[in-house]
Specification:
38% helix; alpha/beta; 220 residues
């Protein structure tokens, strides 16, 4: 299933599980064999691209400063672009600037997505049952994108995707193999480093630096 086909499914699920006045947030970055795929939780209305008036890229963290600190610390975004993110208001992002940011992400061979694409008005927690509605679609997304390494942020996302109870603190710097449609992929579970999880950002960066350097297994 192509990303365009998947995006149509995400729009349907937005109407079921998300805020009706907002659009689904899909993904951005290199969608063809990236080195890393980052899987976050779900978007909120703070993302400018969730607005129905936004006609550009519908991707995670558009107009939200905090997430880009992580990518900068990992050298996964252009320095000049990062400084522009820091120096403008979130509301000042344009569709053209969002494209520029995500082109830099793509140039660094990174793909960014969420497990749940249903945009909420705020950062309310979603039950497992909602995320589970997206799990099969995430696996199809991974098949389409074909990343070398997949980073799962937080206990809830990690547990749902890996199909077992995960406590990030107990599995730091551990590689999980999971088969999707007969092909093995490498997964890693990392502390959620944004919002209330900022207290763990140093641990997340430490683990991510190790993961980036980890010699990946050959997918079969």
């Amino acid at each position: 299933m192509s990303l365009q086909e998947l995006n149509k499914e995400f729009i349907k699920l937005q109407n079921k599980y998300g805020a009706k006045e907002l659009d689904a947030i899909c993904s951005g970055g290199l969608a063809d064999n990236p080195d890393i795929c980052f899987v976050f939780m779900n978007p909120t209305g703070r993302n400018l691209s969730a607005s129905k008036s936004w006609k550009g890229l519908k991707a995670p963290w558009i107009g939200i400063k905090s997430a880009w600190n992580l990518f900068y610390e990992l050298n996964l975004i252009n320095k000049n672009i990062y400084h522009k993110i820091r120096n403008i208001k979130g509301s000042e992002w344009t569709e053209e600037f969002a494209d520029e940011v995500y082109q830099s992400i793509a140039n660094h061979k990174v793909y960014i997505t969420n497990l749940g694409k249903c945009t909420q008005l705020d950062a309310r927690p979603l039950p497992d049952s909602v995320y589970e509605q997206y799990l099969g679609l995430l696996f199809k997304e991974i098949e389409s994108v074909n990343p070398k390494k997949i980073i799962l942020f937080g206990n809830q996302v990690s547990s749902i995707v890996l199909g077992e109870k995960i406590s990030v603190s107990q599995v730091r710097k551990q590689r999980f193999e999971k088969q999707i449609n007969g092909k093995k992929y490498n997964f890693y579970s990392v502390y959620y480093p944004i919002g209330n999880g900022r207290i763990n950002i140093d641990k997340a960066i430490e683990d991510l630096q190790w993961i980036i350097k980890d010699k990946e297994l050959v997918a079969t």
